Structures are given as structure tokens and as C-alpha cells.
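Dear support,

I submitted the protein below through the web form. The confirmation email said the job was done, but the results page showed an empty box. After a refresh the structure appeared. I'm attaching both so you can tell me whether what I see now is the final result or a partial one.
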Amino acid sequence: MTRSRPQHAAAAPVLSGPDPGTPGRSSLWPGAVAVVLLCGLAALPGLLHGHATSLLARLFILIILASMWNLLAGYAGLISLGQQAFFGLGCYVVLALAVHGTKPLLALPAAVLGCAALGVAVWSLLWRLRSPFFALATLVIAADCYLIISRYPSLGGTIGRTLPGLPKGSPASLTDTVYWLSLGVVVVALAAVYVIMRSKPGRVLRAVHDDQSAARTVGGQAGGTRLLVFAIAAAGCGAGGALEVVRAPYLQSSSAFSIQWSAMMIFAVLIGGIGTIEGPIAGSVLVFAVQQWLAPDGSWSYIVLGLLTIAIAIWVPRGIWGLLPDKAKLLPAGYALWPHGRGREPAAVAAGAEPEA
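What the results page shows now:
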């Protein structure tokens, strides 16, 4: 009689490090490329007129927002439809402090910290909810923020008001300052994502992405890590809102809390490549280009971007950045949530699908 082997308990998921598809890759050349690119971008205001500089600052703000949404959905598996709540509150913290005499540029750190604190409070309410309910709850919170802010006439109510206290010098000088601040926040946001995914929280996120109980089997503090990510994403979106209100200083609550901001984040991430650091950058550039191209046609830009996102989710689920070979990618040492031939496709994550049995 043949003796059967004893059944062993299922092994805990392996928390792998950098993407094994690129072993031994040096990170020196991507760093050199990034430094050269950063220096070139920093010098652009001296070569461009004010309107072009302002448009590039808006592109940088979109990159910040997309990177934060990618941190939530692409790495932590948290699908949020209400990130415009933190964007709008970042705008209104700057406005509220400016109304009471604080210089708008000096109010930017307060907006970031305030949105991070609100992110912690919101997470304490929503952390038990699963994907579909979590997404809907964030949308409800964004709507509540809009309704609350609209009740304050001193902040413009539903009509809106101009941001006071801006420097009285040359408008071009203010535009250049916002450009450099936006570029700096882009660098900080991307560096934060990179550091998180290279550290222990990044390994926990990989484990907890689809199965929170799996993270506990390897000692990962799933709840604390997701709280950290949610607070950072809230702070990043708040920074984007604070920069936007200084860039375009007439503020309306219906615009600041518009779901179009979350739509642009989602479009940029899914088009560029969810779960990558570079994908949201590429997606933001494409989304921005389409918006500028179709700006005279009103809402046609959102129709075109929506159709493009659907097409990419179906036929290029890893996004346009995923079409590049690994050797051409700028951050090959970053974590890849979906190595080739393994795991779910990013489109399924963006749709909030539950893991297969």
C-alpha cells in the first residue's frame, strides 16, 4: 500500500525585492538621466513666456496627482474616486489662511499637513470597507466637503473669490515661482513613491495588495502601511490643490471639488501604466496634450480620454509605458506588481475586481 505524503500548510507569499527581470542593473544611468532632465526643466522658465510656463506648472500638478492615485490604487490596491476632496481642501486651506493675512506661498505647507491630517481621519472611518464600498465612500466624502465649503461666504460660497495676498511684483515672476515649486513637489512625490516601494512598507504593500490576511502571515503591518499610504496620497493631492490655486488664483468650490480631477488622475494612471513609477508621468503628458488639443471643444477631451482609457485597458493593460522593454525603463530597480506572465492585469485592479480563488 502506497503511503501518501503529509499535507503541508500553504506557504506564505514570498516578498520579493526588485523586479527579477532586471538582475544586476545599475541605477547610476537612470539617476544621471533624471538629474540632467531636472536641470533642463529647471532652466525652462528663462526660455519660455509666462503662459507656457503656467501650462507646464499645470502639467506638473497633474503628475503629482496621478502619482498619488497610482500609489493608492497601483500599489496599495485602494481605489479612490474622491481624491478631489483633498485637492479642493488644499486649495481652500491656502485661501482661508490668505483671507486671514497669511501669504499664499507661506500657506502651502499648512495645506499639505492639513490634508495629511484629514487623510488620517478619513482612513479611520473607511479602513474596514472593501473595494467597491471604499471607492463610493470616498466619493461621498468629496461631495460632503464641497457642500461644507460652499456654506462659507468668506471663502466665496458657491460663487467663488480671488485669492488675496499674492505678491504684487511681475506676474511672470509669480508664474516662475509656481513652476519651480511644482517641479520640486513632483520630485518629492516621485522620490516618496520610490522610497516607499524600496523599503519594508513596499514589501508589505506587495503582500497586502490583494490579500490583507496574507500580509499578516509574514508579519506585515497591513493597516499601518495602508494608513501611511493614504495619508501621503492625501498630502500629495493637497499639495497639488495648493499649487493650483496659486497658479490660477480665482477659486470656485464647484471647480475645486469637481470629480474631473479624479477622472484625470485615473486616465493618466491607466493610460500610462498602473503600478509603475514612470507610467503616471507618461500618462499625464498624454492626458495633458489631449486636453490642450481639444480645449476649444469643451468636454470632448474627456470623451476622447475615456475611450482611449477603455481601449488601453482592453488591448494594452499594462499601459503605454509597459510597451517599452525593461532595458529602456528609467527605474528598473522599482517594484513591479505584475511581472510578465504572473498575477492579475492592471485593468482588473483599476476596476476593483476581487482576487481570483
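Response: this is the final, complete result; the empty box was a page-load delay. The chain has one domain: 48-350.
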